[in-house]
What we know:
Elements: E1 2-7, E2 13-19, E3 22-29, H1 35-50, E4 59-65, H2 69-86, E5 90-94, H3 95-101, E6 109-117, E7 120-128, E8 134-144, H4 145-155, E9 159-162, H5 165-168, H6 170-176, E10 181-183, H7 193-205, H8 224-237
Parallel strand pairs: 1-4, 4-5, 6-9, 9-10
Antiparallel strand pairs: 1-2, 2-3, 6-7, 7-8
Amino acid sequence: MRILGIDGSGLVASVALVEDDNLIGEYTTGYKKTHSQTLLPMLDELGKMIDLDLYSIDAIAVAAGPGSFTGLRIASATAKGLGFTLGTPIVSVSTVDALAYNMWGNPGLICPIMDARRGQVYTGLYKFENDGAFTVVKDQCAVSFEEIAADINSRGEMVTFLGDGVPVFGDKIKSFLTVPYRLAPAHLNRQHASSVAALGLIYYLNGDCQPAADHRPEYLRLSQAERERMEKEKEGRA
């Protein structure tokens, strides 16, 4: 079973191919270029390196959000374009879930935090059971850091933080956490398409996939442009 993973939900752009339990290849970069400049060239380069026949792919797993509105649209458009061309189904994987999956086997709670701006984080809570089962403790959401910190404190368990929100909310982590915590190391603390693909494989085997035409990103909240438009409409009706 071959799953192509794509993640453009944040600053990181990443593509990977997972075959059954093996990572065949991955190309990940956190350099500040737009994903429209990086994703397709990265996929092309990865394909050359591993002699990838795109028609051999069983499904395309894409980080469907939350995250950067622009990045999500680019990644989703890339996945949909490939899906249409190849006739391949798409597996939508939560960005936050995939981030947590980076920490497979980690003891205690796992809390990805992505900077959602406006004082909020995209986050959720996860843990791995003794048998390795991946459990969602708190579904993905957009909340203030104080709110997720209060939830974590109430559970009384050690927690591991990762994601681009860690450096942004580092001082608040120190100030608000009353339980033991640690920060994921550099090689695990950002998005990886290999985690998207590995988690996508599980979803695909459970029948959780869709035709390319049906795929949509999951933004969790309105974009700034949409919020501004709604505010102007309210002012116009006042």
